[in-house]
Design brief:
3 helices, mainly alpha, 56 residues, globular
Length: 56
């Protein structure tokens, strides 16, 4: 699947369970690739987004 299709799919998917599986799979793949910096960036971004969501 081309990169643009993957991004488009994720942006328009409404099933939270499916998006959770995609996110977990991506993080597991990054672990196998040995990319701790990217995983940290994802977690940092997710934490910031979660904090904004909670304050609304």
């Amino acid at each position: 699947m081309p990169k643009k299709e993957i991004i488009h799919y994720i942006e328009h998917e409404g099933n939270s369970d499916l998006l959770y599986l995609v996110a977990v799979t991506c993080i597991e793949r990054l672990v196998k690739l040995g990319k701790p910096g990217v995983i940290k960036a994802i977690l940092d971004s997710g934490t910031a987004t979660l904090c904004k969501m909670i304050t609304k």
